[in-house]
Amino acid sequence: MKQLILVRHAKSSWEAPLRDFDRPLTGRGIQDAHLVSSHIGNEIPKSFLVWSSAAKRASETAMIFAQNLSFPVESIQFKDDLYTFDESKLEQIIKSCSDEYEHLIVFGHNEAITNFVNKFGNVFIDNVSTAGFVNIIFDNHSWNDIGKGITKKVIFPRDLK
């Protein structure tokens, strides 16, 4: 069995004249990341691998989750190739995960995340919101073989307000 947790980065700012890759979280984004991460403790397995897009807004979101879930920030693997909006690219990256890991947490971007969860999960989600959390279970022994899974849990900030 494989467990995949996808987290869309929290709300980011368009105010400063920065490259898209360098956009930071807004105050609301920071609050929402804290809110969601403080409500998912029961969904997180005891051991897991954590990957995050290297983009500033995704890495800041991952660090907030690490703080609230008490896992070391140093354990997060920041990956440039997770800075993608394409679900096929996201799928390729997830399927490349070593089979020695049963549980993978990925911090990334839309449209890739929404399209991925709709392709691989069994619950249609119109749009995974910023700071949105989706937990999918796959009845597979290899990441490369994942197919349709079971959407175990979906949490968006608006569900907690």
Textual characterization of the structure:
Helices cover 29% and strands 21% of the residues. It is of the alpha/beta class and 161 residues long. The chain has one domain: 3-Layer(aba) Sandwich (Rossmann fold). The chain has a six-stranded mixed sheet with strand order 3-2-4-1-5-6, with helices on both faces. The mean pLDDT is 96.
Provide keyphrases for this structure:
about 30% helix; alpha/beta; Rossmann fold; 6 strands; globular; about 160 residues; about 20% strand
What is shown here, in short?
This protein is an alpha/beta fold and 161 residues long.
Helix content: 25-40%
The main pleated sheet reads as: 6 strands, mixed
Structural class: alpha/beta
What's the total helix number?
5
**Mean of the pLDDT scores?**
96
Beta-strand residue fraction:
15-25%
CATH class: Alpha Beta
In terms of per-residue confidence, which ranges show pLDDT below 50 for 5 or more consecutive residues?
none
What is the topology, as strand order, of the major beta sheet? 3-2-4-1-5-6
| CATH homologous superfamily placement | Phosphoglycerate mutase-like
**What's the overall geometry?**
globular
How far from one another are the termini? 33 Å
Number of domains: 1
SSE series: EHEHEHEHEEH
Write the CATH architecture name: 3-Layer(aba) Sandwich
Rg calculated over all Cα atoms: 14 Å
Annotation, overall tally of beta strands: 6
**The CATH topology, please?**
Rossmann fold
Task: List the SSEs and their pairings.
Blueprint: E1 2-8, H1 27-37, E2 49-53, H2 56-69, E3 76-79, H3 87-95, E4 103-108, H4 112-120, E5 133-138, E6 150-155, H5 157-160
Parallel strand pairs: 1-4, 2-3, 2-4
Antiparallel strand pairs: 1-5, 5-6
